[in-house]
Amino acid sequence: MADDEIPFPPGFGVKDIVAWGSTGLVVLDSATQTVIKTPFDPEQDALIQREREIYKRLVERGKHPGTLSYIGEVNGNSIRLEYASNHDMRSYLKQQGVDSGTRLGWMIQIADALAFVHDAGIIHGDLTSTNVFLDDKMNARLADFAGSSIDSSALLIHVTPSHEYPGNLLSPQGDIFALGSVFYEVTTGKRPYAGLDDHIIRSKFQKGDFPDVSSLGGLGHVIRTCWDGGYEDSKILVKDLESR
């Protein structure tokens, strides 16, 4: 797509881009230290509108420090969000070493945010480390709800196979399973079964054949329990993590 074809919000251009994904374009408003997420074309309007609906629900429920703050609507088809200056977790982990205490803290923050999201009637549906962001104080913030389900609506995006629950994706267990894969990546630096074809990963998961986590100690037990469906809800997962 040529620069002059990109549907930038008025007053923004290539120099302002901070992210570019399947659901739209994200530009930084440096004057307010917020970002504007806008669709590439009208076909993606539904994704941004779904995300706006979900953020409004989260605001109604009292907000949570583990999700990005929703500022409001822009130009009818875009949303303004808090800016997470350290970007997404996967990118950060590729560039920086992180101590075990920080990693555990992130896991607790994400799981606690997910419990809040589930209580609000939302299933994230695309929970990966690229959809968890790090703010200026290095706190983990759950985001990117463009493909999520609200009040049992259909998911608009499917999660990558390395994080895909071999069961009902419209369930808290679907997100908790994906969170196990996020924790695996945070702990080991790689996604589950990295390098294998998607159909092989799906086949393994259907058989309950997951990566070996025995060398990861207590966190390995947490990860395996996420994959095995052993947590009834995210609140129980939070308590287990806090005991580590």
Structure description:
The protein has about 240 residues and is α+β, with helices and mostly antiparallel strands. It has two domains: about 15-80, Phosphorylase Kinase, domain 1 (2-Layer Sandwich), CATH 3.30.200; about 85-244, Transferase(Phosphotransferase), domain 1 (Orthogonal Bundle), CATH 1.10.510. Helices cover about 35% and strands about 15% of the residues. It contains seven helices and nine strands, in the order βββαββααββββαααα. It has helices at about 45-60, 90-95, 100-120, 170-190, 200-205, 215-230, 235-240; strands spanning about 15-20, 25-30, 35-40, 70-75, 80, 120-125, 130-135, 140, 150. The strands form three sheets. A five-stranded antiparallel beta sheet has the order 1-2-3-5-4, with helices on one face. The chain has a two-stranded antiparallel ribbon with strand order 6-9. It has a two-stranded antiparallel sheet with strand order 7-8. A hairpin with a 2-residue loop joins β1 and β2. α3 runs antiparallel to α4 and α4 runs antiparallel to α6. The longest helix is centred in the middle third of the chain and has 20 residues, at about 100-120. It is globular. The protein starts with 16 loop residues before the first strand and ends with a helix. Its EC number is 2.7.11.1. It comes from Cordyceps militaris (strain CM01). Component of the EKC/KEOPS complex composed of at least BUD32, CGI121, GON7, KAE1 and PCC1; the whole complex dimerizes. GO terms for molecular function: ATP binding; protein serine/threonine kinase activity. This is EKC/KEOPS complex subunit BUD32.
